[in-house]
Amino acid sequence: MRRNSLDICADLLKVARDGAKKTQLVYKANLNFNIIKKYIERLNVNGLLIHKNGYYITTERGSKFIDQYHELVGTHRPHTEMIT
Fold first, then answer.
1. pLDDT values of the chain reduced to their tens digit, one per residue, 84 residues
2. What sections of the chain are H helices per DSSP?
3. Nearest-angstrom CA–CA distance, 84 and 72
4. Which residue range is the domain that position 26 belongs to?
5. Residue 67 and residue 33: Cα distance in Å, rounded?
6. Count of Cβ atoms closer than 10 Å to residue 76 Cβ
7. Which residues contact 51 (CB under 8 A, 6 or more apart)?
8. What CATH number corresponds to the domain at position 31?
9. How many structural domains compose the chain?
């Protein structure tokens, strides 16, 4: 299944929760350097991600986005996926 831009943003923010270099974001979110640039810019402009001392770090607002994203995605999973 292909990820949409919200999925990608959430993945990047999850990776950056404890701080991550751009290379870590690329590999852990399974993106390339060209594509990741626009997502980093979008997240930064919207106050969800900051760049500090060579690391990208998820802001408090970014953490709230992740929580809300999981609430939304969790309620839209097929019934069989929700059963553990």
1. 688 999 999 999 999 999 999 999 999 999 999 999 999 999 999 999 999 999 999 999 999 999 999 998 875 555 444 333
2. 5-15, 22-28, 33-45, 60-75, 79-82
3. 18
4. 5-82
5. 26
6. 9
7. 40, 44, 57
8. 1.10.10.10
9. 1
